[in-house]
Structures are given as C-alpha cells and as structure tokens.
Amino acid sequence: MGSREHKTKAGLHKKLQLLRSLTKSHAVNDASIVIDASRYIKELKHKVKKLNRELASTQSSTSDQPLPQVTVETLERGFLINVFLDKTHPGLLVSILAVFEDLGLSVMEARASCANSFCLEAFGGEDQGENVDEYVVKEAVIRAVRSCYQD
Fold it and tell me: Comparing 6-20, 34-48, 56-70, 121-135, which segment has the lowest mean pLDDT?
C-alpha cells in the first residue's frame, strides 16, 4: 500500500509542477500553486470576456459593410480581377472602375452582375509606364468597396 501511495503523491507532485509552469507561478508549496493557478484562470477568463466584447463591437460596426472577396491574378499583360460580394450597393461598379482608372489600368474586357449579389470579372491591361502589382490592385479595390458602403 505504501508504494501505491508514493506513486499517487509523485503523480500529484508532477501535475502540480506542470500547473506551476503553465501558470508561470513562482510558488513553492502546493496550496500556493493552486491559488496562483486560480488567479491565472480568472485573468484568462477576463481576457476572453474582453476579447469577446471587442469582437462583438467590431462585428456590429462592420455588419453593414460586407467583406468583398477579391482575387487578382497577374497575367502577361495586365491583371484578371474578380470581385464578389453577397449584396450589391448603388455606385459600387463605378467606384471599382474609377480605382482601375486611378491605377492606370485600362479595362479590356469585363463581366458584371449587380442583381442581388455583386460579381465582377475584369481584365485590366496596364497603361504604358505604370508599374502596379496585384497586391496594390487588390487593396485599392477593397478600399473602394468599403468607401462605397460608408457613403
């Protein structure tokens, strides 16, 4: 029976040391380790509540602004740009085309649907002398969508 009790104590000690290291406790005795772990758990719960509040406020402020799905593919002479949103907004197509113009992209071919959702597939060729990469195009389109929904 003594061996079994020793194994139980050793296992408990090992688990308390693990708890001590996980909670970054500097306590020496078992009771203090448990108290520090309890405080650590309360801190974590507080952080989770705070993050959930922040997430909820962020989601409520952006619920009116749908996130666009934008893909930009670099082609030999220009870009293939796809934009999709679950819902459309007046002036959205015009805003995106204005961004293309600002970036020096000439729209060679485009297909757009603005019925219930918004879908745009456009091939934009770079004007001479312009040097634009796909990241710049994507970010500019996303900004145009967001500004359209803020107006």
Answer: 56-70
**How many angstroms from the chain centroid is the CA of residue 88?**
22
Amino acid at 36: D
Residue type, 73: E
Structure tokens at 13: 């000690």
Tell me if 80 sits within 8 A of 121, measured CB to CB. yes
| 94/136 Cα distance (integer angstroms) | 19
Total-model pTM: 0.55
Identity of the residue numbered 52? N
Contact 145, 99 (CB under 8 A): no
Q: What is the H or E stretch that residue 119 is in?
A: strand 118-126
User: How is residue 60 written in tokens?
Assistant: 């409520």
Whether 131 shows a pLDDT value over 80: the answer reads no
The answer to whether residues 118 and 89 touch, using CB atoms and an 8 Å cutoff, is yes
Is residue 115 a contact partner of residue 88, using CB atoms and an 8 Å limit?
A: yes
Spell out the residues 6+ positions from residue 91 whose beta carbon is closer than 8 angstroms to its own. 148, 151
CA angle in degrees (0–180, nearest 5) for 104-105-111: 155
DSSP annotation of 66 reads P
